[in-house]
Amino acid sequence: MTPTAENQSQPRLLTGDTPTGRLHLGHWVGSLENRVRMQDQYECYFIIANAHAFTTRADQPDEIRQSVLDIAADYLAAGIDPRRSTIFVQSEIPAIAELTFFFAMLVPFGRLMRNPTLKDEIRDKGLGDNYSFGFLLYPVGQIADILAFRPQLVPVGEDQLAHLELTREVARRFNQLYCGVNPQTRDEDCLKAGGLFPIIEPRLGRVRRLVGIGPPNAAGQLLKMSKSLHNAIFISDDPDAVRKKVMAMYTDPNRRRAADPGTVENNPLWIFHETFNPDQNWVRQAEEKYRAGAIGDVECKKKLVDVLVALIEPMRQRRLALEKDPGHVLAVLREGTARANALAGQTLRLAKAALRQNYL
Ligand code: ATP
Ligand code: MG
pTM of the entire structure? Predict the structure, then answer.
């Protein structure tokens, strides 16, 4: 039986990714490893948000198509189990587009424009004044991506918190305006009080914002690892690609020779060791030596290559096996999209009834 809000036995979780490339280590520690683990306790929905990829890449439909398939393969390689979890494609769920329109009326324009994540993206992706109207619409679309599935929990990286706060505000507003929920009602009681949408809770990963392998921006901040910023190590990179990226990665620009004292703070080399190296004793000792100029970048980078290859290689091997069977990935998407449509369609019917727009 397709799970619905009424008969679900486990709490529900929704999260996902924009198909603007393959998944990287930032996704792994920010959200993906949590997702793999949470499949046992939650009814999981994973959205591949392809319409959102068009907000910055409307001229690249072929790349977006390829990226949808890449991300689905990355999910399966990382350990998402399609028998327990639902993987689906956003543009195949018409209810999301319909809900976006109604939710857009509940978001004040000025509130949207003050959204810090949008401002960061405009700056870091170099969008200047050339972004489309559709780009501004994507946080509203994301509210519909989430609320169409009425989840309790949304695991994300730190950059998404601003969007999730907006989602919470829209859910409260909808429940108050159209479902008669008293504004004094506590968030956790809103469904009991007749509300349609739960007030979702964000869940941050072990690392809220993994930095990329490149240098800082003009303001001296290290950029987040991002598919779009060419600063990522992908979970599908082969050992040679990992080695090349790590050996060329940004470290401490003031350190010219191995014997010079180095800075550990704000240095991606050490951020990566602290995040991924299972041998944290080695990391602490090596950091002390690094500060004293008693260990070289190259030795520490080689160690990091070993650590990352050990994490990535089993996923890459599973991915290679999947690439031999492209029909399997499509079958997973087809089945997941059918399950997602059943639930989102039910939400839309309930939303239209609450909006008093259920005529026929
Ligand atoms: P794009 O460059 O197209 O924005 P992205 O790399 O930021 O891509 P998204 O698809 O936007 O990836 O994000 C998917 C999920 O992964 C979100 O929950 C986001 O917060 C999380 N995430 C992305 N990058 C990182 C990172 N570097 N550290 C932690 N979490 C991240
Ligand atoms: Mg992003």
Answer: 0.92
